[in-house]
Amino acid sequence: MLKQRVITAAIGVPLVILAVWFGEPWFSILIGAVALAVALEFYHLIAASHKGCPLTYFGLLWTLVLVLSPHYQNISVLNVDVLPLAITLPIMISLVWLLHRSPREKAFDNWAWTVAGALYAGWMLSYWLNLRILEDGRDWVYLGLLTTFANDTGAFFIGRTWGKHKLAPAISPSKTWEGVVGGLLMAW
User: Which of 27, 146, 153, 157 has its CA 20 to 30 Å from the CA of residue 163?
Assistant: First the structure.
């Protein structure tokens, strides 16, 4: 497991550093790809747990629209701001679609999971793009990434070495309270 993490880091970290450094369009492509991977995993987990049947392809498209929203925040078509439409239309279209295609008792659950996946991946990760376009945004993104990597690395090694008290064994059996503290100390 450690070998796989080291190989992933050896390939991934330089690519992330370069994408942040060179900015557009590389950083948007990176964040868009990450958002799509996160949303796809989210939708697969929901489907595998039999909690719902989200509109996966629609959700992925909507995730991409949301994650790229910082690029069209100030754009209007026929004096109508595009951003509210990019949020409202998919909500309404997916609800109407599922009301006609799903059994009525499952339609709301399927719709809620579709919306949740797009918002979780697309809207949340769009903040990285918002951060990058700020003055000194590149430095702020590097700081955010460094803090995140330090937390993850500290939690992994300290939890692996001294971890005895399970954090949430039903969700992630390897996570420990000692790892949480170690991650927080490394990020600090």
Answer: 146
Q: DSSP for 96-114, please give it.
A: HHHHHHS-HHHHHHHHHHH
Give residue for tokens 């376009």: 133
pLDDT tens, residue by residue, 55-81: 899 999 999 999 998 887 777 767 767
pLDDT band at 186, cuts 50/70/90? very high
- Which residues have CB under 8 Å from 176's CB, separation 6+? 159, 163, 164, 165, 166, 167
Sign of the Cα pseudo-torsion (173, 179, 181, 183, in order): negative
Spans of all domains in the chain = 2-133, 136-188
Which amino acid, one-letter code, is at 18? L
Q: How far apart are CA 146 and CA 162, in angstroms?
A: 23
Cα first-last separation, the chain: 26
